[in-house]
Specification:
Two copies of one chain form a homodimer.
Chain A lengths: L3 H8 L2 H9 L5 E2 H5 L6 H13 L3 E6 L2 E6 L5 H30 L2
Antiparallel strand pairs in A: 1-3, 2-3
The first copy, chain A, binds a DNA duplex (30 and 30 nucleotides) through helix 4.
DNA sequence: ATTTTATTCAACCATATAGTTGAATAAAGA
DNA sequence: TCTTTATTCAACTATATGGTTGAATAAAAT
């Protein structure tokens, strides 16, 4: 469903953000992704599943090995919410400043 | 410490994002924030504390009542990470396209 | 001085999360 | 065929999260 809850929840973990960073060099196998981490392969496999479920990763199976890659579109729900919220506040602050300027010229 | 873990974790909950949206009209008391939610005042008070701890809200005390307001700067760690990741991929995709175009002109 | 109002603190509960280990599955290599 | 390799599944543990209720605190109103 690509929900914003899932997206932000998935990103709120340093191991998972690190996994995304690792995939900048291109698709990788589960074991490759796991290798640099100080935790079991199984733990990493679970993190991968969370990211996949959030729409941030896609999996390509080739025989027994699974290749994961980052799916940039998965960031959209989170990016959109943050940008919308920022924009709303930029407008609020602009309005505030405009009001101050108007007040100044009324003197 | 304004960590990105805390920021994203705080945003990954619909009630908390709703609280931020509510504060668009300006600062509000804890009870005002709680009023439209289908949960106890205490639950909302906890959510407020999570947002505050993540640097997304600031609290101004006036006697017994606490006024909360949104702190747009609190979004920066999350926004920055997302934008940086997006940018990295935009470059990757651009490079890919450039390679394809170069390949095409070699025919 | 007493009561009401605004809010937090504390204890508790249910469920989710992040990790573990060990077994299961299934493809590849000997 | 037998063994190794790549990965998931299942069961379990510890801690975190999101909610509850009831008591504590402290300021405001009567």
């Amino acid at each position: 469903m690509l929900s914003i809850d899932k997206t932000l929840g998935a990103l709120a973990d340093p191991t998972r953000r690190e996994i995304i960073a690792q995939l900048n060099v291109g698709e990788q196998r589960v074991s490759d992704i796991a290798e640099p981490h100080q935790m079991s392969l199984n733990a990493v496999s679970k993190h991968i599943k969370v990211l996949e479920d959030a729409g941030l990763l896609i999996r390509r199976r080739e025989g027994r090995t699974h290749y994961l890659s980052f799916r940039p579109d998965g960031l959209e729900p989170a990016a959109e919410w943050i940008e919308r919220t920022r924009a709303m506040w930029a407008r609020r602050l602009d309005a505030l400043e405009a009001a101050l300027v108007a007040d100044e010229s009324e003197k």
